Amino acid sequence: MMRYKATISYDGTKYVGWQRQKNGLSIQEVLETAMQKVFGCEVECTASGRTDAGVHAEGQVIHFEVETGIPADKIPFSVNNCLPEDISMLACEVAPKGFNARFSAKRKTYKYSIYYSRFPLPMLEHTHYRSTVPMNVEAMKEAAQKLVGTHDFKCFMAAGSNIKDKTYRTMYSVDVEGKDNVVTITVCGNGFLYNMVRIMAGTLYYVGIGKLTPKDVGRIVAQKDRAAAGKTLPAKGLCLVSVEYGDGDQNTSEDSLS
User: Fold this and answer.
1) Which terminus of the chain, N or C, has less C-beta within 10 A?
2) Which residues are catalytic?
3) Based on the domain organization, do 56 and 155 belong to the same domain?
4) What is the mean pLDDT of the chain?
């Protein structure tokens, strides 16, 4: 049995998230069903982490094991023929020895996208959060730097998390970019708490519209004050950009990527 590493991209709008669930169709179920058609046997896919309902991915990483005569770099062609248009396998290779898509991950990068418009823009609506007021991008950039480094990010953890302590995480970068009417928040870290990126984005958004100041963000982190942080922005604006693997400590991410 050979283990493979693959990169998957998907639009999560129609799905209940990555993981198989009884209440709806998941990315995992659709992908594994396609693989069963290609390989003629059941295949179990393990992802770098779970994305919630409505969350998208440009570079989700998975591993799976199968016996096949199809060369690794040709597997995406076969699998994509059995997938819908909103899910795609971008690359596949024989996995390095000991590779595990979840536990071997070292860094993950997400982006949260917000657009400003008085009225909904259909081409952006299902992948961006809409702000009805303009945002101060420079203030958001200043506030974002308060989040860089190793901190106790309990203030950005949603209720219902399985993790009650060990809430320290390292953010290697938190960048805010504004172009035309779109603001993108890109976060790279060694792990994330439940809904952490969406709450971070909501807090920076509040800075952008004047509900919070950059100094407030520093205080919120220092005081671990969830009540003072911004709201949890909708899942549709969140996208898993990439997962990095290599030497170093294993990631400390919670199962959910959002």
Assistant:
1) N
2) 52
3) no
4) 93
> For residue 161, what pLDDT is reported?
60
Q: Examine residue 231 and state whether it is found in any structural domain, yes or no.
A: yes
The last residue of one of the domains, among 94, 118, 145, is 94
Give the CA radius of gyration of the chain: 19
Is the CB of residue 230 less than 8 Å from the CB of residue 247?
no
Examine the fold and report which residue of 27, 61, 94 is the final residue of a domain before the chain moves on.
94
User: Both tokens of residue 3?
Assistant: 């283990």
Q: How many domains does the chain fold into?
A: 2
Task: Please indicate, yes or no, whether residues 119 and 204 belong to a single structural domain of this protein.
Answer: yes
Range of the domain at 191: 106-245
Q: How far is CA 35 from CA 108, 119, 209, in A?
A: 26, 41, 46
- Same-domain pairing of 118 and 233: yes
The yes-or-no verdict on residue 236 having pLDDT over 90 is yes
Contact 112, 195 (CB under 8 A): no
CA distance 160 to 207: 26
Asked if 82 contacts 34 with a C-beta cutoff of 8 angstroms, the reply is: yes
pLDDT for the residue numbered 158: 83
Instruction: Tell me the pLDDT tens digit for each residue of 117-173.
Output: 999 999 999 999 999 999 999 999 999 999 999 999 999 998 766 666 689 999 999
Extract the tokens encoding 173: 């970068």
Residues 257, 236, 211, 132: what is their CA dihedral angle, to the nearest 10 degrees? 170
Give the pLDDT of residue 166.
86
d(CA 144, CA 203): 9
Q: Is residue 33 part of a domain?
A: yes
Domain co-membership, 76 together with 111: no
